[in-house]
Specification:
Helices cover 26% and strands 29% of the residues. With 209 residues, the chain is α/β, with parallel strands linked by helices. The chain binds glutamine.
């Protein structure tokens, strides 16, 4: 399957590696015509203002919105910001997901962190896909947060996939969400040695989940 990775800025190469590991052909998307024939698109992490400005410059805003009407898009970190409806500051956004994000919600680069996340939806994918390890269960996903945003509001059509642990073991802020065929993660699965989020995306592209 041909799957696109928006290659304007950011860590698109890491996503391409992850897709290749799963046996798919990653296509680097820089111009509207590169979207032709793709079964889905990943928007990588990086710097969301830069990605947005370049997308405007290369005439990608409308083609990406049209693409999303029929095919899945997954945004990681800056990509999730770019997918959102509102980042509470002026910058070009696709406005596709009914979420409000808080950019750099944890502070500066030095405040980046890693933590294990409970993501029940991944166990489901594992059970459904042939590449699962045969032991679906509550295996945590290692979340790598690099100057990450938070999803501070998710609309009624948005399914929350993961939250950070809150104070006292309660429910913390949203860090992964799905709205139909759109996926947003505040962290970077492409940097973790765990392909489950990429497999979830492939399943979305196949229309399996
Ligand atoms: N801080 C970046 C932004 O606001 C996102 C960082 C990332 O993608 N790792 O766009």
């Amino acid at each position: 399957m041909d799957l696109g990775v928006l290659a304007l800025q950011g860590d698109f190469a890491e996503h391409a590696h992850a897709l290749r590991r799963l046996g798919h052909n990653p296509v680097e998307v820089r111009l509207p015509r590169d979207l032709e024939g793709l079964a889905g698109l990943i928007i990588p992490g990086g710097e969301s203002t830069t990605i947005g400005k370049l997308a405007v410059k290369y005439g990608l805003m409308q083609p990406l919105r049209v693409f999303a009407q029929t095919r899945p898009i997954w945004g990681t970190c800056a990509g999730a910001i770019f997918l959102s409806q509102d980042a509470r500051r002026p910058q070009p956004l696709l406005g596709l997901m009914d979420i409000t994000v808080a950019r750099n919600a944890f502070g500066r680069q030095v405040d980046s962190f890693e933590t294990d996340l409970d993501v029940p939806a991944l166990a489901e994918v594992e059970a459904k896909t042939a590449r699962g390890n045969g032991q679906p269960g509550p295996r945590p996903f290692h979340g790598i947060f690099i100057r990450a945003p938070l999803i501070e509001r998710a609309g009624p059509g948005v399914e929350v996939l993961a939250r950070l642990p809150g104070p006292g073991g309660g429910q913390g802020p949203i860090v992964a969400a799905r709205q139909g065929r759109l996926l947003a993660t505040a962290f970077h699965p492409e940097l973790a040695a765990d392909d489950r989020f990429h497999r979830l995306f492939v399943s979305l592209a196949r229309g399996e989940v």
